[in-house]
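Structure representation.

___
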Amino acid sequence: MGTNLTKYFTQKSIGTIYPISLRQQVPRSIPKGIKYFIHLAGKAHDTNNISSPEEYFQINTELTKQLFDVYLQSPARDFIYFSSVKAAADKVSGILTEDIIPDPQTPYGQSKLKAEEYILSQLLPEEKRVIILRPCMIHGPGNKGNLNLLYKVVKKSIPYPLAAFKNKRSFLSINNLLFIIEQLLNNPHIPGGIYNATDDIPLSTIEIIHIIGEESGITPRMWKLSPTLIRTLAKVGDILYLPLNSERLKKLTENYVVSNQKIKNALGIQSFPVSSREGLLKTVRSFEGALRK
């Protein structure tokens, strides 16, 4: 994400970026003239479930608290924190909005929520603005998550065994995310607060597989195996650390639809510049390009 942001800002001549690595420690001060903090660092959700809870809280919560304290003492105007929709809910019934009472069940979501709570609990000087973005799954060039896995399944003509599951999930194209950040920085009148970040139209996993097949010139092979059997195999995967486990099964088959109406209202737009389908095609093309190198 940091690489994409740096490239985008450089191409658009938005300003000079001063990257800060939090791998060792949070800096006590920042260079003069810094106007914005964009906090991207964090420990991502581990779908293999082998990370300790302490890791999430140390990185996602404690480091965020330390960096926010530096921001409060700095002359910078904005602090944009990348949280996650998983700070609000692990499961969604209907459509997830910012009004939900957060109830994360995993260390990842809980650590993100704790960081949010600390940020919102601090007294903010009048001239400063804090924006908490809750993106859903971000995709784009270099994506290494489940989209990459689905791409490999289609590309190798491996039958997709989860075709019996019907679902809709929200995704976020990196292009739309960069657009959001640019608009926020350019318009200081947009109110601070919590905003979901997602593309306009949710997609089903089966739709995604067909889009991948269309771009790759391959007809996907779809198997409708018993959901009961699949869930049993996923539980075995939990024990043996197999590619298909309960966490990955949830991401591939459950509904998780997120509203983006609040951020669109704040930006004064009807829709994002990149459609859900177009954004996914860009990601698939990046996979194709990586194969040709």
User: Anything to note?
Assistant: The beta strands are 36-39, 78-82, 95-96, 129-135, 137-139, 171-173, 193-197, 257-258.
